[in-house]
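Researcher: Quick test of sequence recovery. Tokens follow.
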């Protein structure tokens, strides 16, 4: 098993409020790692430290290290824009641009100066296929993305992320705004995508974590209480607090 992301003694502050305390974790390549825990325990904050999205929030501070492929992502040598290409992110609410399906997918590439129509067409086809959306939308690629259903929009947002050739993809509660069938399709998709990407998912659904993740981290009050193989977390947790949470005693 290969470590893709190594987190060392990570603390995170919003002003004087410490939202993450002394996080240490290895996140493995081509696995799905789930973050679970009650609302406000720091899951999203931690996710956003991994692609430096927290830097958009004023008056925040990081201590400690996050290494991706051995490189400290907070070092001065790292360009945060390039980092966010390598570490893509998909959000809770599908957020396609008010543009065509095609333009949504090629948006980032065009911004990076890719103009060749053949290359762009190829990327649109392959990414739509890899998110299992191609058959559903092949006749309306030049129609507005906003005409798609919520579940289709979310798969399009995943396609848009993949088009940038990331190697890590962060998902922040990607199915909480979706119906059960769309949720199932996204879960199946994540299981496919882990062959090519390292996946981290914040989820409020323990069932979802149990269904799709290989590793689970249980957060409480900004700390990682327990991190282990998902089947161990759900069948034989070491910590009483994890057990109380997964059996529904709080949260
Ligand atoms: P979770 O994802 O587990 O629900 P969050 O990471 O959103 O938790 O929040 C962790 C803590 O950080 C909470 O106390 C929350 O109020 C605080 N927090 C989150 N976002 C901000 C922000 N933009 N500014 C200030 N505090 C924040």
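Model:
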């Amino acid at each position: 098993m290969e470590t893709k992301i190594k987190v060392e003694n990570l603390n995170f502050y919003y002003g004087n409020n410490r939202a993450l305390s002394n996080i240490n974790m290895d996140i493995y390549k081509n696995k799905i790692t789930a973050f679970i825990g009650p609302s406000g325990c720091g899951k999203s904050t931690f996710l956003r430290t991994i692609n430096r999205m927290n830097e958009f929030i004023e008056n925040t501070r990081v201590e400690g290290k996050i290494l991706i492929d051995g490189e400290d992502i907070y070092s001065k040598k790292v360009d945060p824009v390039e980092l966010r290409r390598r570490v893509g992110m998909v959000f809770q609410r599908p957020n396609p641009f008010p543009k065509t399906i095609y333009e949504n997918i090629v948006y980032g590439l065009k911004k990076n100066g890719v103009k060749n129509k053949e290359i762009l067409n190829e990327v649109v086809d392959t990414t739509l296929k890899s998110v299992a959306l191609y058959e559903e939308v092949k006749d309306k690629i030049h129609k507005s993305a906003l005409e798609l259903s919520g579940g289709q929009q979310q798969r399009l947002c995943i396609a848009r992320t993949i088009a940038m050739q990331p190697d890590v993809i962060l998902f922040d509660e990607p199915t909480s705004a979706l119906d059960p069938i769309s949720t199932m399709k996204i879960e199946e998709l994540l299981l496919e995508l882990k062959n090519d990407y390292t996946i981290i998912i914040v989820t409020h659904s323990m069932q979802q974590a149990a269904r799709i993740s290989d590793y689970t981290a249980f957060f409480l009050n900004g700390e990682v209480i327990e991190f282990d193989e998902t089947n161990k977390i759900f069948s034989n947790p070491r910590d009483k607090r994890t057990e109380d949470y997964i059996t529904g005693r709080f949260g």
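The first helix runs from residue 43 to 49.
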